[in-house]
Amino acid sequence: MSTDPFNKYQDKPSYLLDGESEGASLERIDARIHELSGKSSGRRRLKWMAMAAMILVVLFAGRYGLFGDRSGSELVSSYYEVYPNYQTNITRGIVADAQLADAYQAYDEGAFDLATQAFKAQSILSAVDGLYYAIALQGLSEWETSLQLLYRIRNELPDEYVAAGEWYLVLALVAQERYEEASPILEAIASGKSEFSGKAVDLLNDIQ
User: Fold this and answer.
1) Total number of domains constituting the chain
2) Domain boundary among 30, 53, 68
3) Alpha carbon distance 22, 14 (integer Å)
4) Domain region containing 83
């Protein structure tokens, strides 16, 4: 029999507790491994569930605009439409200036760069011509130039063009995120009975 004072530790496996058989020790270790494995698996499941929930929230918010971070120009892009050219549909034979006729033709074709150049070249524009010029400027996202023009002609437009003038003026304001100025004009349009009233209600809700 060995007299080595450390022999009792060397002869006994380190994983055995005092008085514990080797079989019982292995069962205890297996149980602990199973316990830890279950906890780890549970944590992984919770982690993936949380990630999936976050993805759903982001997708839902993006779909329904819950983050509310759309810029003014992005809002306006949903509402801007080219106003029909009633002017030359009615008076094309009366338009004497060929360059002005070219401006309206370019406008009708959506060539706003050419249309704005032709309008700008005119020494005199009527208020209605100015309205179409301003709308063409908006087609090029020249919001401030369009706004200043619309303010100048605002009180000179014939009755049948007043609603259009107010609508495109408010689009120029919203595009520049000047919502406080836009709101009362939108409220007036929304309370009226023009072709823009329904859109005004929606846009007013979007900026509030």
Assistant:
1) 2
2) 68
3) 10
4) 73-207
Residue 144 and residue 63 share a domain: no
Which contacts (CB < 8 Å, 24+ apart) does range 158-162 have? 158/127, 158/128, 161/127, 161/128, 161/131
Q: Tally the residues of the chain.
A: 208
As given in the structure block, the two tokens for residue 208 are 């509030």
The CB-side HSE value for 37 (13 A sphere, CA atoms) comes to 6
Co-location of 86 and 188 in the same domain: yes
φ/ψ of residue 3, rounded to 5: -105, 10
Question: One digit per residue, pLDDT tens: the chain, 208 residues?
Answer: 545 444 444 455 555 566 667 677 677 776 776 666 665 555 556 555 666 555 554 454 444 444 456 899 899 999 999 999 987 655 555 555 788 889 999 999 999 999 999 999 988 899 999 999 999 999 999 999 999 999 999 999 999 999 999 999 999 999 999 999 999 999 999 999 999 999 999 999 999 8
Final residue of a structural domain among 38, 68, 98: 68
